[in-house]
Amino acid sequence: MQGSKKGFLPFRHGIVLSKDQSPKTPEEIESMKAVPYASAVGSLMYAMLCTRPDICFAVGMVSRFQSNPGREHWTAVKHIIKSGAISWRSIKQTCVADSTMEAEYVAASEAAKEAVWLRNFLLDLGVVPSVQSPITLYCDNSGAVANSKSHGAIKGQNT
Q1: How many Å apart are CA 84 and CA 59, to the nearest integer?
Q2: Domain-by-domain residue ranges, the chain?
Q3: Would you say residue 125 has pLDDT above 90?
Q4: Which pTM value belongs to this model?
């Protein structure tokens, strides 16, 4: 497994959640009332049941503290949410690719279009006030990445 990359885990190793982390002072309790903890955990439960069985353990852990969640519990909920897919699809490509590189290049092109649409959609909703940074697109095919940097190198490619 040399050279392999770490994957995302919905629950960080070494994190221990307990009732001792629940707020105790009236000020802490009042500040946590503004946090949508139960709503977020409920949304995670729905996602877990419908599409994300990988978060089952983590959601079970954070759901134990819905009656009196603390900051550490809220941080754990945000960690579960932060790297989930917000858009995905699996389709048969409409064009015939002559190579794996070309198929990956076409898929990356479609993913870029979707990412631009999602950014514009979020801007229109007002979820984020403005997004100035470029969109990062990950591609695991070095040939497709090289082709995207100098796309004139491949002849007869339709995208």
Answers
A1: 13
A2: 19-82, 100-153
A3: no
A4: 0.58
